[in-house]
Amino acid sequence: MRLLSCVLLVVAGPAMASEPCSVGEARVAAERVIRLDPQARDRVEGRRGALASSREMLLFAIDTRAATGLRIDVEGSGFDPAVELCRQEGGRLVRVAENLDGPRDLDPRLETVVPAGRSFVVVRAESGSGPFTLLVRQTEAPRPIPVRRISVGQTVTGRLRPEPDRGVTVKDRWALQVEGGATYLVAARSDSFDTILWVRDQNADAGGRTYGENDDGWDGLNSILLFSARDSGTRIIEIGDNNGNGGEYRLTVRLLDPSLASLPPR
Predict the structure, then answer these.
(1) Is residue 170 domain-shared with residue 72, that is, in the same domain?
(2) Where among 116, 139, 162 does a domain terminate?
(3) Which H/E stretch holds residue 212?
(4) Side by side, which strands form the sheet with 155-160?
(5) How many whole angstroms separate alpha carbon 131 and alpha carbon 47?
(6) What would you measure as the largest C-alpha separation in the chain, in angstroms?
(7) For 56, what's the count of Cα atoms within 13 Å in the CB-facing half-sphere?
(8) How do residues 18-68 score in pLDDT, each as one tens digit?
(9) Sign of dihedral through CA atoms 92, 98, 100, 104?
């Protein structure tokens, strides 16, 4: 019971809604705006910057005229950088993706899809400080990931393909039918890789709204989150691999027990 209380304190706050971006205001200096030409696939746009301390963060903007795939790399010099991708939602900046370490070293990499318009990139430090280079490559939007169905109270199994060079990627998607006003617990466990979970709307391929995300919230590197459904409908549960190892996983969805009496079996 003590373990459960600790876990719920970690996930109940941020997972109930889209997690806020580390930077609160969307004010970006002109030299930190990257405008991408939809015809210039695979061209790398770079910006240099420096963090004077581990508490400093720098905000960049990426403007796109159509939904597109992006690969975002941060190359730090002498420190451990992190990167966030954020969007404006309801007048505030919310985080839609994050990476702390890349596939081979401490330099982070994000591969994702963004909708048309402005997205924001936050470069910050996990530890240390120093100069860095932000590299943004426009890629072909990946093919839609097939969506399977999961029901409340069900545990399903899946397997992710090893991709050690790609950083954090969304690998599997599951559709969940929810009822307005209910709160749900979603948990992912793997003995092979570091899981990460998101709950999004049905527009996930175009960077749709994020209702919750969690990386390491339960039993080591396994993931757990809570989210409340304001309206009835379909939510997309995405499970990703933080280290590219691949392997089998188990995914569980439960209607939240008001007594908070149990977690999915290990």
Answers:
(1) no
(2) 139
(3) strand 210-214
(4) 155-160, 247-255, 183-189, 223-228
(5) 11
(6) 56
(7) 12
(8) 578 888 777 888 999 999 987 777 788 999 999 999 889 999 999 998 888
(9) negative
Q: Are residues 150 and 241 in the same domain?
A: yes
Q: Within this chain, do residues 183 and 224 fall inside the same structural domain, yes or no?
A: yes
Is 247 strand, coil or helix? strand
Residue type, 236: I
Please give the average per-residue pLDDT across 213-218, as a whole number: 75
Which of 139, 174, 207 corresponds to the end of one domain? 139
Three-state DSSP class for residue 169: strand
In a domain, 68, yes or no: yes
Based on the fold, state whether residues 77 and 179 are members of the same structural domain: no
Give the distance from CA 88 to its chain's centroid: 15
User: Does 63 reside within a domain?
Assistant: yes
Kindly report the CATH number assigned to the domain that includes residue 129. 2.60.120.1050
Q: How does pLDDT run across 157-169, given as a tens digit for each residue?
A: 999 888 765 555 6
pLDDT of residue 216: 73
Other Cβ atoms within 10 Å of 43 Cβ, number: 11
pTM: 0.59
78, 80, 86, 127, 132 from 54: Cα distances, Å: 12, 9, 20, 6, 13
> Strands of 44-51's sheet, edge to edge?
44-51, 130-139, 68-76, 109-114
**Tokens 């100069």, located at residue:** 131
- Residue 210 pLDDT > 80: no
Is pLDDT at 16 greater than 70 in this prediction?
no
Q: Which two tokens mark 262?
A: 């149990």
